[in-house]
């Protein structure tokens, strides 16, 4: 099943005269600065291609002037591309007639703006039901839907409050409620939280994730904050000088940045919240089976300069840890590995985020065994490796 909802292909957006010459230069690899110097044409977007999947939060991040806002406004043709295509569910929206485009904006794609975009002469309810009103939804139905969305964003009881009486965070909630009430498949959000204070921003981020998971909306979110991008995004696109440099999940981007620019851009991000254990685990140096003898276990630990060993069964299921002092005792007393096994060992999953295991790693005596859902040993992760990700 194809889950691609939007497809952007070889998109350019140029401003100014002399576009033909500028386009040719850009396609030959000339930088946008040199193109501007020679032609006076500003290249806001240069050969941008991407796919956005149904039901994901797709975050576009970049510095001021990188082209992220220009790109998002091409998604609903508020900006018309100079060249390239934007397809929605397989249809090229640039070929829509005026009425088709109007209907597309009403029913398929809504937008939440940084400056809220609310109408001061309407109260909360009046603002939230605006999109439904434009669709000619009957008063009773739009009132019911708007009240549901107001409650969903935590503003129940404020339906009749004037907009000017609300805080910035509340206004942003009204904007989100309005977009949700319109019941479009896609919500475009252009730096909606950038003007909010940190505590309100954190609440709004949590609210957005909760709503998206509940309703399954496709959200395209613009930000310049890498921590916000990694917190919200299922996938993240980094832009620079009108180009897309890399598209990846936060974890993929953290562990495999496309180039030095991406590496520098994301270096301030809290990677413990997006990098999983599987990216820092490694094979244990000393591994023994339940069927091995204590003498074999002692020799393995001595060879590797370690005082403990990880124990698995014949199917590589993790069973526990043994220590060398117990192995020596077992050899003397003719005991089996199972007789000296420490089985109450805390384990972690390869999919656990590093942030979730930091305290466990600090508190445990041994490197943490990493086991899959069936209990098989996949590797180990040491306290030092976990804590090094904090630096």
Key traits:
single chain, 391 residues, alpha/beta, Rossmann fold, CBS-domain, 6-stranded mixed beta sheet, 4-stranded antiparallel beta sheet, 16 helices, 15 strands, 38% helix, elongated
Number of domain units: 2
According to CATH, what is the topology of the largest domain?
Rossmann fold
Query: What's the gyration radius in Å?
Result: 28 Å
Kindly report how far apart the N and C termini lie: 42 Å
Unreliable segments (pLDDT under 50, ≥5 consecutive)? none
Count the E strands. 15
The helicity comes to 25-40%
Q: What would you say the CATH architecture of the largest domain is? A: 3-Layer(aba) Sandwich
What's the CATH class label of the largest domain?
Answer: Alpha Beta
Q: Strand order, biggest sheet?
A: 6-7-8-3-9-10
| Broad structural category | alpha/beta
- Form type: elongated
How would you describe the oligomerization state of the chains in this entry? single chain
Average pLDDT over all residues: 91
Number of helices: 16
Please outline the major beta sheet. Answer: 6 strands, mixed
């Amino acid at each position: 099943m194809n889950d691609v909802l939007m497809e952007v292909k070889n998109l350019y957006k140029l401003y100014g005269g002399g576009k033909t010459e500028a386009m040719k230069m850009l396609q030959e690899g000339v930088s946008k600065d040199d193109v501007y110097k020679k032609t006076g044409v500003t290249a806001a977007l240069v050969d941008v291609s991407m796919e956005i999947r149904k039901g994901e939060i797709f975050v576009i991040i970049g510095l001021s002037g990188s082209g992220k806002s220009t790109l998002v406004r091409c998604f609903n043709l508020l900006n018309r591309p100079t060249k390239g295509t934007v397809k929605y569910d397989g249809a090229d929206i640039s070929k829509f007639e005026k009425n088709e485009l109007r209907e597309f904006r009403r029913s398929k794609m809504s937008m939440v703006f940084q400056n809220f975009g609310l109408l001061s002469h309407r109260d909360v309810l009046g603002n939230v039901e605006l999109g439904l009103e434009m669709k000619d939804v009957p008063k009773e139905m739009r009132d019911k839907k708007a009240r549901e969305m107001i409650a969903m964003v935590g503003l129940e009881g404020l339906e009749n409050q004037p907009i000017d009486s609300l805080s910035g965070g509340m206004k942003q909630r009204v904007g989100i409620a309005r977009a949700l009430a319109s019941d479009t498949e896609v919500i475009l959000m252009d730096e909606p939280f950038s003007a909010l204070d940190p505590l309100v921003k954190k609440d709004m981020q949590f609210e957005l994730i909760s709503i998206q998971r509940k309703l399954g909306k496709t959200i395209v979110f613009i930000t310049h904050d890498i921590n916000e991008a990694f917190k919200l995004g299922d996938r993240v696109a980094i832009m620079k000088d009108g180009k897309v440099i890399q598209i990846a999940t936060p974890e993929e981007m953290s562990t495999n940045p496309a180039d030095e620019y991406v590496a520098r851009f994301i270096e301030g991000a809290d990677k413990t919240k997006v990098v999983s254990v599987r990216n820092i685990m490694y094979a244990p140096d000393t591994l023994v089976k339940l069927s091995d003898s204590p003498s074999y276990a002692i020799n393995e630990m001595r060879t590797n300069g370690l005082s403990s060993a990880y124990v698995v069964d014949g199917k590589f299921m993790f069973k526990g840890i043994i220590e060398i002092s117990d192995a020596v005792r077992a050899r003397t007393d003719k005991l089996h590995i199972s007789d000296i096994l420490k089985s109450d060992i805390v384990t972690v999953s390869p999919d656990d985020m590093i942030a979730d295991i930091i305290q466990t790693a600090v508190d445990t005596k041994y490197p943490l065994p990493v086991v899959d859902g069936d209990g098989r040993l996949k590797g180990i992760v040491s306290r030092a490796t976990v804590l090094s990700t904090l630096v």
